[in-house]
Amino acid sequence: MEPLIVLILVTLALRGVGAARASALASWPVALRGGLAAMFTLTGIVHFVGMRAEMVAMVPPFLPAPELLVTITGVLELAGAVGLLLRPTARTAAGCLTVLLVVMFPANVHAALSEVATAPWDTLVPRTLMQIVFLAATLAVTACPATQRLLDRRRPATTGTGH
Questions:
Q1: Predicted TM-score of the model (pTM)
Q2: What contacts 107, CB < 8 A, 6 or more positions away?
Q3: Among 18, 22, 70, 119, which residue carries the largest CB count within 10 Å?
């Protein structure tokens, strides 16, 4: 639940700050990139600190080296978060994070069905719904042509005078 809260609150906060300052953050795609970056920073960090044992327990038993897989996915989430913040890599990072969410979904199913996690929002339906929201957000950054048009509109215009 915490990643969903972070995604929503940071996206809304960035949008609000952007609107107040008439900056690039006023666009939904840019604010959403910031919200996703904050969310993946949070989820990437817990692969190493605070919830590592729970993350390892989530790995389905048919997969080898659960600790290594948790380390790799944590690093990928943190790298994706950085990529989202850089305009030239934002769409690629979002696309890679989309794939990562899909690949990691079996761990969420395993955690829900084996009762590794016991909070009410850790059951299969809420976990699945949250994954759909996360996928929709990464896909909005990746695939939406309007996203790129909005990003391009925010780039400073260059003139032939060298200024």
A1: 0.83
A2: 58, 59, 60
A3: 70
